[in-house]
Amino acid sequence: MRDPYTVLGVPRSASEKDIKSAYRKLAKKYHPDQNPEDPSAHSKFAEATNAYDLLNNTDKRGQFDRGEIDADGNPKFGGFNPGGFGGGQRGARPGAGAGGAGGFSAEDILKEFMSGFGGQPRGGAGAGRGPAGGAQWDPFAGGAAGGAGAGRSMKGEDVVVTAAVSLEDAHKGGSIPVRMPSGKVLSVKLPEKVEEGQQIRLKGQGSPGFGEPGDALVTVRFEKSKQFRRDGADIRTDVAITLYEAVLGAKVRVPTLDGSVELNLPPGIDTGKALRLKGKGLYSDGDLYVNIKVVLPPGGDPDLEALARFMRDQKPYKVRDN
Length: 322
Description:
Blueprint: H1 4-8, H2 16-30, H3 39-55, H4 58-65, H5 106-114, E1 159-165, H6 167-172, E2 175-179, E3 185-189, E4 199-202, E5 216-222, E6 229-231, E7 234-242, H7 243-248, E8 250-254, E9 261-265, E10 274-277, E11 288-295, H8 302-314
Parallel strand pairs: 1-5, 7-11
Antiparallel strand pairs: 2-3, 4-5, 6-7, 8-9, 10-11
Helix pairs in contact: 2-3, 2-5
């Protein structure tokens, strides 16, 4: 974690009241229930909560200021005095010990404003506390302070990421690179016949916690393709051909999700005609429809103009009713 003072935006000389006020503002701004579609807000909320939990505890704040522990509350072995954790506060959860900022834990602050919109604090601030008067969770000792029992951990927040997937990648399967909110790039394997909106869970790739990290939830979004249009399992694409290819017929190469193939054009094909390639749609469940577009030569052509006048005057034909 970054320097907790920097995270909360307060100087090292900040009072307990200033620290509490700074955390209150950040918690309201970045709480996951207020920002369900913003994964970066989830990370900032977890970071602010961890920073407040450290600075809210008088002993932990003092140890951090003296350089005995790092921003995550872990001892710095280079100059760390083991006795620093041996006193009466060993095992106390950051923010839960006496001498905190006015006795307010992160959970207390969250309850104040969460009650305003009918929610409860989630795992990032306060999950894992025992009942009132009971043992408190000890992130360092692995047990309950002042009593027996198995230690409890606080899982980190899940992060939500949207992955833009091309139709070609979805069709072929395999893995795609996905950038996490932390900046880390992961190789994510696509499920077979992945659908838009489908969610892929990456275990342990979310925000860090005390113990088990959260998960990353990757939501698939199909990219808009320049070549293909999806119509359910069918795929449509446009292919330009010359006037003489339309009149005489030809063999032309057309794109598919599996690479280009050769297509036979019958003589006399019209613009707007769709030729079907069976089984060439998405995941081979649908078909590929090739829409033909006849393109005239650029800049005009005197011979073509003469032929057009001849057909207009000598061999007219109707293509429109009324």
